[in-house]
């Protein structure tokens, strides 16, 4: 690479430096020029061609949520003292985006942001340098939801009920606040809520706070669960207690299932005895319904059987007829 160096001739009579030109094929050097009047030297740096370059940084990094402000910054090399810029989105110039930074909140998914820098360094060649971002990942915002399940299926007085929050878009570390009748329950900030202190017509709700990064709102409120405590009056049947069973698999009067006839809050025992007073079948809450078979699974003969129903230390007796 060709460089120009100035040197002087000390034999001049006017006490001014006379510069001569030499050419050297080197990268760069410094020239110290001193006039003959012993004034301070002037240092001139002579250099070679500089190649400009530019990179882009973005804040915040992707992925981003739709509508988020993203600021892109151009990082120049050999840009000179006052480089100029032109930003583009998907190859189209952004009008007025000519500063070292560019901010946008209207980017779409997979958009590519580029910048063209024009260097004003006198040694720059070429003058232009370009850089492009990675494709911008833009996510549509989600809306969190929460609903409530509870077990057991019936809420009984003084019995323990477990409420569970079922969520969507809750993030990796959601928080919860359980409420009864609109009032926060102290300390109940987990995904489940266990209680035995509910009364008739209480309403249980939960508020979810999501920490997912791209949301329309971080909070979601469940629909309230209204507490209905079933009647636990002894022998308060849901319909008539059957006195006839016809177990022929026609779907009519084939079974007697007290789980379906009594409040789920009741514990009971159903005893069926033959005419001689011998126990032939027994059902307890949650057990198998009576289908006209004995304890060993054998069909009982047609006839009249005696039953005893025991609920909360009270008894009810009657007759059941099996017709085949």
- Give a quick account of the main beta sheet: strands, pairing sense, barrel closure: 5 strands, antiparallel
Strands, total number? 26
Structural class: mainly beta
Helix content: under 10%
Under CATH, the topology of the largest domain can be stated as Immunoglobulin-like
Global geometry: rod-shaped
**Proportion in β-strands:** 35-45%
Q: Low-confidence parts lasting 5 or more residues at pLDDT below 50?
A: 1-35
- How many domains, as an integer? 4
**Helix segment tally:** 1
H/E element sequence: EEEEEEEEEEEEEEEEEEEEEEHEEEE
CATH class descriptor of the largest domain: Mainly Beta
Kindly state the mean pLDDT as a whole number? 84
Instruction: From the alpha carbons, calculate the radius of gyration and give it in angstroms.
Output: 45 Å
Fourth-tier CATH superfamily name of the largest domain = Immunoglobulins
* CATH architecture identity of the largest domain: Sandwich
Report, as a whole number of angstroms, the end-to-end distance. 114 Å
Topology:
Elements: E1 3-8, E2 19-24, E3 29-33, E4 42-46, E5 53-59, E6 64-65, E7 70-77, E8 84-89, E9 92-93, E10 101-104, E11 113-118, E12 128-132, E13 138-139, E14 145-151, E15 161-168, E16 175-180, E17 183-184, E18 192-195, E19 203-209, E20 219-221, E21 225-226, E22 244-245, H1 258-261, E23 268-273, E24 279-284, E25 303-311, E26 314-322
Parallel strand pairs: 6-13, 22-26
Antiparallel strand pairs: 1-2, 3-4, 5-7, 7-10, 8-9, 8-11, 11-12, 14-15, 15-18, 16-17, 16-19, 19-20, 19-21, 23-24, 23-25, 25-26
